[in-house]
Specification:
Elements lengths: L4 H18 L4 H15 L6 H18 L4 H7 L1 H12 L3
Helix pairs in contact: 1-2, 1-5, 2-3, 3-5
């Protein structure tokens, strides 16, 4: 059963919040972020601003997935993650 937009936002926020708090994460989390963002981008009801934020999260997760030092990647994006969480919170 697919997740609705509200549930997708909740999962996305959980993953980003955990990465921000813990300053670490896993490749599986990056892959989950990618899947969530792809699914969310197919929603025609999202504003262009929301889609831009989601594309930033997608790029972050892509780069993180292939990073040799994922924890450093997450640490270097702490401000971005904080901004994305604030922006995504506006969607819910």
């Amino acid at each position: 059963m697919p997740l609705d937009l509200h549930n997708q936002i909740s999962v996305l926020m959980d993953i980003l919040s955990n990465q921000q708090t813990d300053c670490c994460g896993t490749v599986a989390e990056c892959e989950q972020l990618e899947r969530l963002v792809k699914s969310m981008l197919s929603n025609d009801n999202l504003s262009s601003e929301a889609k831009n934020v989601l594309m930033d999260v997608y790029q972050y997760s892509q780069n993180g997935k292939y990073s040799a030092h994922l924890d450093e990647h997450i640490l270097s994006h702490q401000q971005d993650i904080s901004r994305w969480i604030d922006d995504i919170h506006q969607l819910s």
